[in-house]
Amino acid sequence: MTQHFNSQERQKQIIQATLNIIAKKGISGLTTAEIARSVGIAEATIFRHFASKKEILQTTLLYIRNTLLERGRTVAAEPADPLEKLGRLLKFQLNFFQENSGVPKIIFSEQVHLLDESLRQIMCGTIQDFTGILETIIRDGVIKGQFKADTDVKMVATTYLGLIQVNVLKWSLQNCSPSLVDQFQLIFNFLTQILRI
Question: Is 1 a residue whose pLDDT tops 60?
Fold first, then answer.
């Protein structure tokens, strides 16, 4: 018996297939034929949901953006200690990248950085908005007297993102080994040292 999926479910399948293919073959190895094969549908079916491969990539980047920002806003709104919030966000991000190894290959790709302005804008907006969430949490820690009074909020937020970027890139270049999540304690301990009084 054939299983039927609504449009939203099918789009999620296509996005997941896109991430899986990019994890193995990079953006250059991504074709709509390969996506269709992975999902188990005819290639023409893809174009009922997306106008082009570019739109699939845009939607995939928006999925990454929404996932990170929704979690970031949820954690920022929790009544937890600011350092604990940073730890929760860090753990979530490392898990997210580890479970979706195609994500680093998209966000560090030439396609996003140089070749497509719309993709670049999505990533720039994502980084800017996520940095704002981090700055809010860090500033709250300073106000509450839990972090050093002279903390450079913007620089700590940039450092946090830089630590993730370097670790994720290194992990991706090493064929997703060893476990990215295993880096959590080292990164968190460093953040604790630069923030705590």
Answer: no
